Amino acid sequence: MNLEKFNEVAARKQKKLSTFLTQLETLVPPQLSGIVKAADEATWKQTDCTTCANCCKTMTPTFSEEDVTRIAAHLNMTPAAFRKKWLYKEKRTGDWMNRSQPCQFLENDKCSIYEVRPLDCAEFPHHKLRPWDLYGDTYMANMMHCPATLRLVDKVRRYVVAHYEWPEETETNDPKTL
């Protein structure tokens, strides 16, 4: 994955895709869930997260108490020692977060604790959140870090704009072929 090129594309598409996601808060096309499902399936046929790891390089997951306990045990540490060594408590939310970026567990673009990684990592990029149109803010944030999310939002936008009355230019791309 060429992350420099991804960052250029994401920056170029950010405004258009963010506008689309904002519009989805009030304009929900019929069959949106089917459109998203088809676009998501096509997206994952084009995506290999093991060639990227940009999320691990540019974001930090939240660590639940269960995550801390599980990972600490895996590393033969107490939860308190794990938190002290690797995490900080975010003042505004009270969430436990990584002290460093890229993630301290990222080695050669692979997660060294993959089997016990935080639930936030396991669920990323959160494409399964439903109903899809209520999570525009999540997709807006993630598309600037995750090529799969950028691709998914772009596919959905192209399909919706091409097949529904939508307040922007018309395109004729099908989400299965992008």
- Considering DSSP H and I runs of 4 or more, what fraction of the residues is helical? 40-55%
Oligomeric state of shown chains:
single chain
Mean pLDDT: 92
User: Count of DSSP E strands?
Assistant: 5
Spatial shape: elongated
Structural class: mainly alpha
List SSEs in N-to-C order. HHHEHHEEEEHHH
What is the number of helices? Answer: 8
Radius of gyration: 18 Å
Can I get a quick summary?
The chain has 178 residues and is mainly α.
Question: Explain this structure to me?
Answer:
- This protein is mostly helical and about 180 residues long.
- It has two domains: about 5-50 and about 125-165, no CATH class; about 60-125, no CATH class.
- Helix content is about 50%, strand content about 5%.
- The protein has eight helices and five strands; from the N terminus they run αααβααββββααα.
- The chain has helices at about 5-25, 30-45, 55-60, 65-75, 80-85, 120-125, 135-140, 145-165; strands at about 60-65, 85-90, 95-100, 105, 110.
- The strands form two sheets. A three-stranded antiparallel sheet has the order 1-3-2. It has a two-stranded antiparallel ribbon with strand order 4-5.
- Helix 1 crosses helix 8 (about 145-165) and helix 2 (about 30-45) crosses helix 8.
- The chain starts with a helix and ends in a 15-residue tail after the last helix.
What's the layout of helices and strands?
Layout: H1 3-23, H2 32-45, H3 54-58, E1 62-63, H4 65-74, H5 79-86, E2 87-89, E3 96-98, E4 106-107, E5 110-111, H6 119-123, H7 136-142, H8 147-163
Helix pairs in contact: 1-7, 1-8, 2-8, 4-5
